[in-house]
Design goal:
By secondary structure, the protein is mainly α. It is built from ten helices and no strands. Helix content is 73%, strand content 0%. It is elongated.
Length: 146
């Protein structure tokens, strides 16, 4: 049984503008009044897979994105704007090829999460990193080979 307090918090979350594909999927399913099982059935996926997509653990395939757009009555491009899968994969390859960049990113993200940096600070720090000798060339080379 859901308490009033947790239901109120869930309502507030569902009213917030989604910032990721997972939150968008969850909010849209709730707006449509569908259970996890009902939406999964419409999409032709298991409830467990849909739950993982709503949690951000897994990304839907392109085929599933098409079904989602149709069943959620949204444009496919609206769903694609939340899908960061290709960017994350590119970033992963770049970091593998240039561990120094990975360490810099990790440190910056920790500072950001601790509230010590703002987004513009992150951008400035990354720009500074790319000005270091060979950093930009290594970054571009890693992107090309990734």
């Amino acid at each position: 049984m859901t308490s009033r307090r947790s239901q109120s918090a869930a309502d507030e979350i569902s009213k917030a503008k989604p910032r990721s594909l997972s939150s968008f999927l969850y909010q849209k399913r709730k707006e449509l009044g569908l259970s996890l099982r009902e939406m999964a059935e419409k999409l032709g996926v298991s409830p467990a897979l849909l739950s993982q997509m709503e949690s951000g653990i897994r990304f839907p395939s392109d085929e599933t994105l098409v079904k989602m757009a149709r069943n959620m009555e949204v444009q496919r491009r609206e769903l694609r704007r939340f899908n960061t899968r290709s960017y994350l994969e590119d970033l992963r390859h770049i970091i593998i090829e240039n561990p120094d960049l990975g360490f810099v990113l990790f440190d910056l993200i920790c500072e950001f999460e601790d509230g010590n940096l703002k987004v513009q600070d992150l951008v400035a720090a990354l720009k500074d990193f790319t000005k270091q000798p060979n950093a930009k060339a290594k970054f571009q080379e890693a992107r090309a080979t990734g």
